[in-house]
Amino acid sequence: MFRHLREFIDSIYARDPAARSAWEVLTVYPGVHAVGFHRVSHWLWSNGLKGTARIIAHFSRWLTGIEIHPGATLGHRLFIDHGLGVVIGETAEVGDDCTLYQGVTLGGTSWQQEKRHPTLGNHVVVGAGAKVLGPIHVGDRARIGSNSVVVKDVPADATVVGIPGRVINSGDEQRRRRQEIARRIGFDAYGETPQMPDPVAQVIDRLIDHISLIEQRMEAVCKVLKAAGIPVGAGVPPLDVTRMGPAIPREPNEDPGPGPDDK
Length: 263
Prior knowledge:
The protein has about 260 residues and is α/β, with parallel strands linked by helices.
C-alpha cells in the first residue's frame, strides 16, 4: 500500500510544479482526497453496500467539490488537479496516469441502465471545463483541449478541441516528440495545442522543437566522441528540470564568464 502511495505522490510531483511536499499533497489537495474516498466507496459499492457507498461519495463531494459516482472505475495514479466541479458518472472508466483539470465532466447521454459514460485510456489529459459525453472511448495519451465537448471516439495520441470536439492532430512523430519533452520538463498547458489561437503556446512549441534539435545534435556529438575514445558525461548528473535542484558546480579554475558589470 505504501509503495502505491509513494508512486501516486511522485506522479503528482511530475505533473504539478506547485507540489512542494508529500505532506502538502496528502493534506490540502482535494483531488487526492476525492480519489481516496472513492477507493473506499467503490469497494463498498462492488460488495453490495450501495447505500453506504453513496453516503461516503456524498460526503466526499461536500468536502472536495468533486463528484465521483461509487460505480465509476478509476485507474492508478489518477490526478485531479484543482478539481472543483469535476463530475465522473457511474459507468465511467478512467485508465492509469490520467490527468483531469477543474470543471471536467465524464457524463452520460442516456437514461437507460447500460454503459452510458466514457472510457479513458492511459495517460489521457482532459483540459479544464471539457465535457466528454456518452459511451465513447478516448485512446491512450490523447489530449482533450479546455472547454471542448467530445461526443465521438478519440484515437490514441490524438488532440481534440472545439464544440463539438474535432481531432486536429492524429499523433504525428513531431507532436509525440514535443509531448515527451514537455512531459520531462513538467509542462502540459491544460491540453493546449499549437493550432489554438494562442501565440504564447505556439512560441513554447517552437522552443520545445529547438530543445529537441539540440538534443539530437548533442547525441550525435557524443557518439563521435565515444567512438574516438573520449569519455563523455563523466560526473554530470542526469537532466531533471521537473524538480529544480542546485546548479552544476564549476571546476575550481573554470572561467565563470562575463558578469553583468563587465564592459
